[in-house]
C-alpha cells in the first residue's frame, strides 16, 4: 500500500444528506461504492484505484454507474453479490438493485420505515429491520426472491449489523484478518437500549429443514442473547468486528461501547465504554452524537464519525485513539472502509443546527470524501 496520503471529494454527490455508504466486499472490486441518500436515490460509483489516484486528479476518475430512484428517502443499502444489492427506507419497501442493468425489483415491505438492511454471506440471508418492531428475513435470489420469516421485536429497531461483516477474503497484499469466531450472527439495537443477538446458522438450518419438509423448530428464531446497552442514551450505530468476536455501538451522547459475544466471565470482563466527540464551545462542554462507526477490514481498528465533523480512529485492543483527522466542513452522517483497507469514505453535510459552527468550504453542503488510510489505521506498536 502507498504511504502517500490521498484525499478527494466525489463530484456531483447527492444533494440531500447521505444515510449509508457501502463498498463492494470483494477486495478485487473495492473501488465500487454504493451510496444511499435522503434524496430518494441509491447511487453506484466507480472510484479511482490506488494507482490512478496517485497519478492524477482522482476525482476525475470517478464515474457514476447507476442511479436507482426510490419513492421516498433511502435509509440503508447493502451488497449481496458483485452485481446485486438491496435497499430500504421511508417507503417501507425492500428492493433488490441489479447493478448491471440498473433495474430494481420490490420483493416485499414492512408496515413502517426500514431502518437497516444487511446481507449475511455465511447464511445467504437478507435481513431488514424496521420501526414497525420487526425483522424480516428474505431469500435474495434474483429469480426466486421471497419473504422467509417475520420476527417480532420488543421495540423499534434503530441499528443492526451481521457478524462476520464480510466474507473471508484476502486483499491485494495477500493478507486477511483471522476470523476467531465464524458463527454467523445478527446484532440488533433497539429503542429502549435493548440489544438482541441471533444465531444465523440456526436460521439457515431451519429454513433448509422446512424446505425439506422436516418439523419446524420455533426456538431457533428467538434471540440467542438479550442484553441491555451499557450506553445510557439512544443508540446510533452498531458495527461488528471483522474477526467475529464482538461489536461496537455508539450513542447520541458521545460514547462508544465495545462488547463481546462470548458470555464467559473472563471475556465479558474485557468489555468497556468510553467518552468521545466532545469539546468545549464558548466555555460550555458540548457533547456530539457518534453518528457512525466502521471497522477496518484488515487492521481491526475502527473509525467513529461524529456530529462534531470529526473522524477518529481507535484501537479497540489498546483502548486508545491512534488518529484524528482535521475537521470536515459539516457534521458527518456515514462512513465506510473499502474491503481492501485502502480507503475510507466519509459523508459530510448532515443537517444539524451545529452546521453554522463548522466553518469550511460551503458548510452544510453534502459531500463524500475519499481518503487513503492504510497506514493511518495500523495499530501502533507497543
UniProtKB/TrEMBL annotation:
Keyword tags: Repeat, WD repeat
Pfam families given in the database record: WD40
Stretches forming WD repeats: 107-139
Keyword Repeat carried by entry: yes
Protein origin, superkingdom: Eukaryota
PANTHER family referenced in this protein's UniProt entry, alphabetically: MRNA EXPORT FACTOR AND BUB3
Protein name per its UniProtKB record: WD40 repeat-like protein
Organism: Meira miltonrushii
Highest classification ranks of the organism: Eukaryota, Fungi, Dikarya, Basidiomycota, Ustilaginomycotina
Amino acid at each position: 500500500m502507498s504511504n502517500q496520503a490521498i484525499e478527494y471529494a466525489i463530484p456531483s454527490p447527492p444533494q440531500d444528506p447521505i444515510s449509508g455508504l457501502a463498498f463492494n466486499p470483494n477486495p478485487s472490486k473495492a473501488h465500487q461504492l454504493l451510496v444511499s441518500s435522503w434524496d430518494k436515490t441509491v447511487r453506484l460509483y466507480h472510484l479511482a484505484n490506488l494507482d490512478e489516484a496517485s497519478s492524477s486528479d482522482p476525482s476525475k476518475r470517478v464515474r457514476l454507474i447507476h442511479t436507482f430512484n426510490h419513492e421516498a428517502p433511502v435509509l440503508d443499502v447493502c451488497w449481496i453479490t458483485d452485481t446485486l444489492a438491496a435497499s430500504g427506507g421511508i417507503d417501507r419497501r425492500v428492493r433488490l438493485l441489479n447493478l448491471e442493468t440498473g433495474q430494481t425489483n420490490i420483493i416485499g415491505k414492512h408496515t413502517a420505515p426500514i431502518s437497516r438492511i444487511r446481507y449475511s454471506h455465511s447464511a445467504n440471508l437478507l435481513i431488514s429491520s424496521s420501526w414497525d418492531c420487526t425483522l424480516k428475513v428474505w431469500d435474495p435470489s434474483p429469480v426466486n426472491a421471497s419473504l422467509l420469516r417475520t420476527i417480532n421485536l420488543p421495540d423499534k429497531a434503530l441499528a443492526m449489523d451481521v457478524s462476520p461483516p464480510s466474507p473471508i477474503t484476502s486483499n491485494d497484499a495477500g493478507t486477511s484478518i483471522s476470523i476467531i469466531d465464524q458463527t454467523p450472527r445478527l446484532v440488533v439495537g433497539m429503542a429502549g437500549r435493548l440489544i438482541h443477538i441471533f444465531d444465523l446458522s440456526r436460521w439457515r438450518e431451519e429454513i433448509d429443514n422446512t424446505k425439506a419438509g422436516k418439523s419446524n423448530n420455533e426456538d431457533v428464531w428467538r434471540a440467542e442473547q438479550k442484553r441491555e446497552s451499557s450506553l445510557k442514551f439512544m443508540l446510533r450505530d452498531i458495527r461488528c468486528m471483522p474477526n467475529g468476536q464482538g461489536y461496537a455501538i455508539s450513542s447520541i451522547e458521545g460514547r462508544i461501547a465495545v462488547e463481546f459475544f462470548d458470555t464467559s466471565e473472563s471475556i465479558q470482563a474485557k468489555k468497556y465504554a468510553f467518552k468521545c466527540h466532545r469539546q468545549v464551545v464558548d466555555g460550555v462542554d458540548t457533547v456530539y452524537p457518534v453518528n457512525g462507526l466502521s471497522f477496518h477490514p484488515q487492521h481491526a481498528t475502527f473509525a467513529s464519525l461524529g456530529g462534531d465533523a470529526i473522524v477518529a480512529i481507535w484501537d479497540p485492543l489498546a483502548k486508545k485513539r491512534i488518529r484524528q483527522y482535521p475537521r470536515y466542513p459539516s457534521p458527518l452522517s456515514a462512513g465506510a472502509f473499502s474491503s481492501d483497507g485502502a480507503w475510507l469514505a466519509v459523508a459530510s453535510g448532515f443537517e444539524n443546527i451545529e452546521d453554522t459552527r463548522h466553518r469550511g468550504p460551503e458548510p452544510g453542503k453534502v459531500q463524500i470524501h475519499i481518503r487513503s488510510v492504510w497506514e493511518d489505521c495500523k495499530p501502533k506498536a507497543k
